[in-house]
Design brief:
Blueprint lengths: L7 H23 L10 H13 L1 E5 L1 H6 L9 E10 L2 E8 L6 E8 L2 E7 L5 E8 L5 E2 L3 H18 L4
Antiparallel strand pairs: 1-2, 2-3, 3-4, 4-5, 5-6, 6-7
Length: 163
């Protein structure tokens, strides 16, 4: 008589136990505390503000491609709000073509646009300088990039309704 590599009784025992273990895990998730925000509270408010009051726009892909936001070479769809500040024009864009919300902040300084890509927790990922008659390039000076990013974030936090 030949011996099987897997005993039939052992297989049936495991098959009977696995659904019980899975349902116990589901019950534990059911009683876990629910998260109030999917984003940070400020990020959530900023997303809602841009979705309700922002205008639909299409952004040229060059600077976004340098930041890693690629839409197959096509323009990037965004919700956008722009305002004038003491030291130039500020614009914030909500990028929503990927599965997560992301922000791109930018402002004009002379003939140069400064872009900052961040998430909804306002963690800066990349910064790009885009001269009027040039090509976009990374800002390698992290002190300058972080300082400018903080100035732009502070401007938008002051402007955001419901502070």
């Amino acid at each position: 008589m030949t011996k099987r590599s897997l005993d039939r009784r052992s297989f049936l025992r495991v098959a009977a136990i696995v659904p019980l273990a899975l349902s116990a895990g589901a019950c534990a998730d059911m009683f876990a505390p629910k998260k109030r925000y999917t984003l940070t509270p400020r990020g959530d408010r900023m997303v809602r503000w841009l979705q309700s009051d922002g205008r639909d726009a299409m952004m040229a892909p060059e600077a976004f491609a340098v930041m890693g936001l690629v839409n197959g070479g096509r323009d990037i769809p965004v919700k956008q709000i722009g305002m004038d500040g003491r030291d130039g024009r500020y614009v914030i864009s909500l990028v929503g073509f990927r599965s997560v919300h992301e922000f791109v902040l930018h402002r004009k300084q002379g003939d140069t646009l400064i872009f900052h890509h961040c998430d909804t927790k306002f963690t800066r990922f990349t910064s790009v300088r885009y001269p009027r008659n040039g090509s976009p390039q990374f800002i390698t000076d992290t002190a300058f990039a972080e300082s400018d990013f903080q100035q732009q974030i502070a401007f938008w936090f002051d402007q955001m309704p419901g502070r």
